[in-house]
Amino acid sequence: MTDSNRSPSAAADFARLVADPDPLAGLAVVGGRVSWRAVMTILVIHVGALAALIPSTFSWGAVALVPLLWWITGGLGICLGYHRLLTHRSFRTSKFVEWTLATLGVLSMQSGPLHWVGIHRLHHAESDGEHDPHSPRHGFMWSHLTWGTRRRSDGRRIRAVTLDLARDPYLCWLDRSARVPQLAFAALLFGIGFGVTGTGMGALGYVIWGVCVRTVFVWHMQGFVNSAGHTWGYRNFRTDDESRNNWWVALLTFGEGWHNNHHAQQRSAAHGMRWWEVDPTWWTILLLERLGLVHSVVRPKLDRLDPHR
Ligand SMILES: [Zn+2]
Ligand SMILES: [Zn+2]
């Protein structure tokens, strides 16, 4: 990655990271101690999703929440908010839009914004290297999910690469208090479910489908970006890592599966760069730009596409 691909603040953060007197400190997450809190969260949400098999919790309204909230929390919250805006600053926007997208991202239960962005910036800094937080070279399932179950000792490094976000008190609050909006949202769904179905089990069904089933689905779809996105697919660019463009991952993650394109041009707001590389998150950014809600959108450098790949 060249410095031209990084925002000025991120470049400064990476410079601090590289200048760290103890560069190996804290990144040895592989083989680290198990975080039982993370394991329990993953187990509870998966078991909660299995509760969707209880017939009395079923309603079509509850089922419809899964695709709707997949888009809102995964597409808008993670892909657009956490990734293209907060991590890579692929476009500029108002604080209101930034805070709204970050709040939607928190609802996906993939940690708060500073932690998520920090891990992802470390992934780009160390892509498929020894200290990549979630590379398939340490195991497919490791990169897909289980890396998130280890107690992390890299808090200092995460702080070092998220100094730009740490200046925002709301993002810091979201990072510390991620469970508050998650629980409030579950309570809201329960209330809506009770209002629609008129029964406690019907309301519970809204929480089971809208939180548990949807979260399990989004977790695994995002996990494929880290696992399949570094394992299977083709490459448009000769990058120093194993990133791949994978069509089915792109379809399941609102365009994030064009991962080799993304590793090659990390600040580009578009991840899909050839005509068939559908990228709904890029289309959303273009729509928001047309509406005047975002500006300074970073365009891809299509002349750098490798014609032989
Ligand atoms: Zn990657
Ligand atoms: Zn990225």
Pick out its properties.
14 helices, binds zinc ion, disordered N terminus, mainly alpha, single chain, globular
Strand content: under 5%
Radius of gyration using CA atoms only: 19 Å
Distinct small molecules bound, one entry per kind: zinc ion
Secondary structure: number of strands: 2
Main β-sheet, spatial strand arrangement: 1-2
- H/E topology pattern: HHHEHHHHHHHHHHHE
Biggest sheet: strands, sense, closure? 2 strands, antiparallel
The tally of structural domains comes to: 1
Q: What's the helix count?
A: 14
**Distance from first to last alpha carbon:** 19 Å
User: Shape from CA axes?
Assistant: globular
Find the structural class using helix and strand composition: mainly alpha
Mean pLDDT: 89
In short:
This protein has about 300 residues and is mostly helical.
Structural overview:
With 309 residues, the protein is mostly helical. The chain has one domain (3-304). 55% of the residues lie in helices and 1% in strands. The chain is built from 14 helices and two strands. Helix 3 (60-87) crosses helix 4, helix 3 (60-87) packs parallel to helix 11 (200-226) and helix 10 packs across helix 11. Bound molecules: zinc ion (2 copies). One zinc ion is lined by residues 123, 127, 229-230, 243, 259, 263.
Would you spell out the secondary-structure blueprint of this structure?
Layout: H1 8-18, H2 36-50, H3 60-87, E1 92-93, H4 95-106, H5 113-125, H6 140-144, H7 155-160, H8 163-166, H9 169-176, H10 179-197, H11 200-226, H12 247-252, H13 259-264, H14 280-290, E2 294-295
Antiparallel strand pairs: 1-2
Helix pairs in contact: 2-11, 3-4, 3-5, 3-11, 3-14, 4-9, 10-11
